[in-house]
């Protein structure tokens, strides 16, 4: 218990330091003029905060995870959380009027949860059941809800007003939310965040090396990706 409290205090101090470090942001003269991004001044400040948080906390932890966790164990962990995610993906595919994809996702969960040893092994993909990724923000988009302005959320990063408003529903649809043991639930969420960040290490290096303006690069990539996923241009 004392270790958890010490860790919490340490993270709190890092967050406070990150906030102060990330607040000084140089704004371009045309900030806020893009109709997709009327809140650019706020967004750039939050983007800077998130970058500092990532640099000081998430990226070092993800690098340590990759360096010290055996490859097979990383694969097993990734498969486990991927299987959990397929539950909500299936629900969203049905909500979007795509019963074939929804059935495929449901079958993935059944196959991987049984033959795949509670999702530790991905049996479904080689069996011809492709993986999809759907969330409630995409479902709202399919229903005709406009994306609204681009917005950068604390910690979570790029979003839109529509996608941000859908997050509470996504959280409610996350099977981890229904784990009664608080320590197990929070540990599961923390491991999933680390695993997700580790999977993006290569992409973040590419962005850092290629983008003259990382903020614009991230914004444009996010908006294009979301539009393609909602319209199934994957």
What overall form do the CA principal axes indicate? Answer: globular
Q: Which radius of gyration do the C-alpha atoms yield?
A: 19 Å
Structural class by sheet pairing and helices: mainly alpha
Distance between the termini: 46 Å
**Overall pLDDT metric:** 89
How would you describe this structure to a colleague?
The structure is a single chain. This protein is mainly alpha-helical. The chain folds into 2 domains: 112 residues, no CATH class; 66 residues. It contains 9 helices and 2 strands, in the order H-H-H-H-H-E-E-H-H-H-H. Strands 1-2 form a two-stranded antiparallel sheet. Strand 1 and strand 2 form a beta hairpin. The N and C termini lie far apart (46 Å). The N terminus is likely disordered.
Features:
2 domains; two-stranded antiparallel sheet; single chain; 9 helices; mainly alpha; disordered N terminus; 2 strands
Topology:
Layout: H1 2-22, H2 40-68, H3 71-95, H4 99-114, H5 136-142, E1 150-153, E2 157-160, H6 161-172, H7 182-199, H8 201-210, H9 214-230
Antiparallel strand pairs: 1-2
Helix pairs in contact: 1-2, 2-7, 3-4, 3-7, 5-6
Give a nutshell description of this structure.
The chain is built from nine helices and two strands. The chain has 234 residues and is mostly helical.
């Amino acid at each position: 218990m004392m270790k958890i409290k010490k860790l919490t205090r340490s993270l709190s101090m890092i967050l406070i330091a990150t906030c102060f470090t990330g607040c000084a942001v140089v704004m371009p003269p045309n900030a806020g003029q893009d109709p997709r991004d009327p809140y650019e001044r706020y967004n750039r400040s939050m983007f800077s905060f998130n970058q500092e948080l990532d640099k000081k906390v998430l990226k070092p932890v993800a690098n340590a995870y990759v360096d010290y966790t055996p490859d097979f164990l990383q694969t097993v962990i990734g498969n486990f959380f991927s299987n959990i995610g397929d539950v909500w993906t299936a629900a969203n595919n049905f909500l979007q009027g795509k019963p074939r994809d929804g059935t495929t996702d449901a079958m993935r969960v059944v196959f991987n949860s049984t033959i795949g040893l509670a999702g530790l092994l991905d049996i479904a993909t080689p069996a011809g059941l492709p993986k999809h990724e759907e969330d409630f923000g995409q479902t709202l988009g399919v229903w005709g809800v406009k994306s609204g302005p681009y917005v950068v959320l604390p910690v979570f990063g790029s979003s839109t007003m529509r996608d941000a408003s859908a997050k509470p529903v996504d959280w409610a649809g996350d099977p981890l939310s229904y784990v009664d043991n608080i320590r197990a639930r929070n540990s599961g969420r923390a491991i999933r965040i680390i695993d997700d960040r580790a999977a993006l290490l290569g992409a973040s290096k590419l962005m850092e090396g290629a983008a003259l303006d990382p903020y614009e690069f991230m914004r444009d990539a996010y908006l294009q990706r979301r539009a393609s996923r909602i319209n199934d241009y994957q």
